[in-house]
Write a structure and sequence with these properties.
single chain, about 55% helix
Length: about 170
């Protein structure tokens, strides 16, 4: 055979192989007669059902960003919980002592909310913590007083959602 014929033959074989690799999965998926691999049968364990708690009332959202996406009911968790502090540490400045940062908060959700709000709004964590704990302001009013240019209601909701998500992840 000539060199050009051999090259054309090799190119044709490679093209057919590439088309087979590309089209093969879609052709196999169309085959309804294919036998599915056996699935493992899992028998559920018999446990007493956990008592159901009534969900917390939800506020009507004004816009899509204010909609609650995290669980409404999260278990009480102390702000000093090590797994939570590991999740919150990247939100705070480097070198921040987590025990002193978490000191004074009534629970993990409040601590995480202030940390997320500080990160999202650019307000220093210490300022928001002081306003929330010492001046007894809500996170929303602390944000509004610290940075009036941001939408305090939206940022407080966003921070609370992120905090509830963090606590839900930590508690499993």
């Amino acid at each position: 055979m000539k060199k050009s014929t051999t090259t054309a033959l090799v190119a044709g074989v490679l093209t057919v192989g590439a088309l087979g690799v590309w089209m093969g999965p879609s052709l196999i998926d169309r085959n309804n007669d294919a036998v599915a691999p056996p699935t493992a049968v899992v028998t559920p364990s018999v446990e007493a059902p956990a008592p159901r708690r009534a969900p917390a009332p939800r506020a009507v959202a004004k816009n899509i960003e204010a909609t609650t996406i995290a669980p409404d009911v999260v278990p009480a968790l102390p702000a000093t919980q090590p797994d939570l502090q590991a999740r919150i540490k990247p939100l705070l400045n480097r070198g921040t002592r987590m025990d002193s940062a978490a000191e004074g908060f009534r629970d993990a959700v409040q601590f995480a909310t202030v940390a997320h709000a500080a990160r999202n709004t650019g307000v220093p964590f210490a300022v928001l913590k002081h306003r929330v704990l010492e001046q007894a302001q809500t996170v929303e009013s602390a944000i509004r007083a610290s940075n009036p240019e941001v939408d305090a209601e939206r940022e407080a909701t966003r921070a609370a959602n992120a905090a509830r998500f963090d606590v839900a992840v930590v508690t499993g």
